[in-house]
Write a structure and sequence with these properties.
The chain is of the alpha/beta class. Helices cover 41% and strands 19% of the residues. It contains ten helices and nine strands. Helix 8 links the parallel strand 5 and strand 6. Bound molecules: adenosine monophosphate. The site of adenosine monophosphate has 17 residues, from helix 2 and strand 5.
């Protein structure tokens, strides 16, 4: 596996591959790879030249502490990428990416980024948008793989592709991979003790319960949502948001809406976790 750290070298490689009519598949990550990331690697098209990027995006963190403490396991990550026969790891340093950002990258984001995580994490989606746009410009993939765990992010990436890449990058959405107890895998889980992970899995169980409530009788959803928030709060879990929304627009579902998700963000101690399930 090639390891490229310079933006110029990565651009040069992509140019050569495209001249040779090779398609590039991109799997972007922030490292500390787990089985969730591995499912993206597994799904990626083996006929393509497969590039995985590893960049802890400073612009998407609203809390410097959270950025500084983000788990880093680069040696292990390289072993995992090699085991999936990924062709190239793009591992740029912070400065080379940030200095490549121009004023025109600071753009107005669509309305749906004002709610859910966008409401509570100021500038988070702006940071995601700027860096993913930059990665797409450097690597020029024809396909890119993202996890449904970060559902709002996927909608933003679709918007980015339509607005700036003429819809020419195929965004492949991969299912959320969970621990046996239902907790969605996340790099942030490495900050949790086993007891805290078990506690966090209660959130998944409760949103599955709310899914059944919704399917049974939509009108009782809100009443049961309050009950769930109270139950979780009694266990020491602070819910930041718990919403049921149309999954394509992130607006209130219409009565006949068939494409609906439950979205949740919550705190276990100081760790903030997110999840969502389809209904
Ligand atoms: P991250 O390294 O957290 O930025 O994640 C990189 C990619 O992996 C994103 O597209 C995430 O949505 C995806 N991802 C993270 N956790 C999971 C998971 N549990 N299941 C599926 N995809 C995931």
């Amino acid at each position: 596996m090639k390891i490229i750290t310079s933006v110029e070298d990565q651009e040069k490689l992509s140019k050569e591959l495209i001249n040779d009519n090779r398609d590039i598949s991109l799997i972007p990550t922030m490292g500390n790879l787990h089985l969730g990331h591995e499912s993206l690697l597994k799904s990626s098209d083996k006929d393509d030249y497969r590039v995985s990027s590893l960049f802890i995006n400073p612009l998407q963190f609203d809390d410097l502490n959270d950025y500084n403490n983000y788990p880093k396991t680069i040696e292990k990550d390289i072993k995992i990428l090699k085991s999936y026969k990924i062709d190239c790891l793009f591992l740029p340093d912070k400065e080379s990416i940030i200095q490549n950002i121009s004023d025109s990258d600071h753009l107005n984001l669509p309305k749906f980024t004002d709610i859910l995580c966008g409401k509570y994490r100021k500038n988070h989606f702006q940071g995601v948008f700027i860096i993913v746009k930059k990665l797409f410009e450097i690597i020029q993939p024809s396909k890119a793989y993202f996890g449904k765990k970060d559902y709002q992010q996927i909608l933003l990436i679709n918007h980015l592709v339509n607005k700036f890449f003429d819809g020419n990058i195929k965004i492949i959405q991969c299912e959320t991979i969970r621990e046996n107890n239902g907790l969605a895998m996340s790099s942030r889980n490495s900050h949790l003790t086993q007891d805290q992970k078990n506690l966090a899995s209660m959130v998944y169980k409760e949103i599955c319960f709310l899914k059944e409530v919704f399917l049974d009788n939509k009108d009782s959803f809100n009443e049961n949502k309050l009950f769930v928030i109270k139950n979780l709060s009694d266990l020491g879990i602070k819910i930041e948001y718990l919403e049921i929304l149309s999954r394509n627009t992130l607006t209130k579902p219409r009565p006949d809406d068939k494409e609906v998700n439950i979205f949740v963000a919550y705190y276990i101690g100081t760790s903030r976790l997110i999840d969502n399930i389809e209904i």
